[in-house]
Design a protein that fits this description.
The chain has 14 helices and no strands. It is mainly alpha-helical. It is globular and about 65 Å long.
Length: about 290
């Protein structure tokens, strides 16, 4: 009966309407996704695979790749800790200032990344609030790696929290309360009850956070100083190469960014498929039979 209802729901639209919508979606994906990606790889390989490898092995390019990976390796774990803590507080507890905390989590979505970079310049720059003190103690934040990491953390910290908050709110507190009643400590409740329930949402959030961290341009561009071989990430290095008319080298580094994005998308797709498969298997399991007395 259920399958018949689902079949009727799927076939309510006229055939030509469904085909038109599918065609529009395919054309859109072809024009705005497939063709640009193909153009990037075609331009990167225009002078052959040897020139492509040489562009990636160039010292400044390798420095940009290394800095991008280091920045993501620092920003993602920190945002993981913050995202889980913020989501847990917002979803599981009622406290004064909860609405304000939720607003702070959404702040990077409403602030331009360039403005975020300027805020760090205002605070940590040479003429900023903490600039004289930092200069007196020979501590470099802006135009150095710490500033790049801070800017990346700012623009990426909502992703994990925003993935977990609705998930935790939908799950409620019943399982955690039951664990505490049975004698579990706070950490035991988190590791054995909360974390298994949110692991798929956590994986999605980490994947999205990592993708944004590696591809961030606006905020990093403001605080980096564009120092070749030192403070240029991959997006900044692509811009410099393109402005210098080194199109093959620029597209080679851009293709590496595209490959990282595709790998991220593939990991996310596999995680979603695994989650759906487990959910389907759990839904198809027969209910437990009551034990006869």
């Amino acid at each position: 009966m259920t399958s018949l209802v689902q079949r009727r729901v799927r076939t309510t639209e006229v055939t030509w309407v469904r085909r038109t919508l599918i065609g529009i979606a395919l054309v859109f994906l072809l024009l705005f996704l497939a063709l640009p990606l193909a153009a990037v790889f075609a331009e990167a390989l225009r002078k052959g695979f040897g020139a492509y490898i040489d562009a990636l092995r160039e010292p400044d390019a390798w420095s940009a790749i290394r800095l991008t990976l280091i920045t993501a390796a620092i920003a993602v774990p920190l945002n993981l800790v913050f995202g889980v803590a913020a989501a847990w507080c917002i979803a599981k507890y009622e406290f004064r200032g909860k609405a304000f905390l939720t607003t702070l989590v959404d702040l990077p979505f409403s602030v331009s990344p360039v403005v975020a970079g300027l805020m760090y310049i205002l605070v940590f720059g040479a003429q900023g609030w903490l600039g004289p003190w930092l200069e007196a103690h020979d501590i470099k934040v802006v135009f150095a790696v710490p500033g790049i990491v801070l800017a990346t953390i700012f623009v990426t910290f909502p992703f994990i929290a925003r993935e977990l908050i609705p998930l935790m709110q939908a799950q409620g507190n019943e399982e955690e309360q039951a664990a505490i009643v049975l004698g579990a400590t706070g950490w035991q409740t988190f590791w054995r009850v909360t974390l298994p329930n949110i692991k798929w949402g956590l994986i999605y959030g980490v994947i999205l956070c990592n993708a944004r961290a590696m591809g961030e341009f606006g905020a990093v561009s403001v605080v980096s100083g564009h120092i070749r071989g030192q403070t240029n990430t991959m997006p900044l290095h692509v811009e410099i190469l393109y402005n210098e008319y080194q199109s093959v080298a620029a597209f080679a580094v851009a293709s590496l960014l595209a490959l990282l994005a595709l790998v991220t998308l593939a990991i996310k797709t596999v995680a979603e498929w695994q989650h759906e498969r487990l959910m389907k298997a759990a839904a198809e399991m027969p209910p437990e039979q009551p034990v006869p007395v």
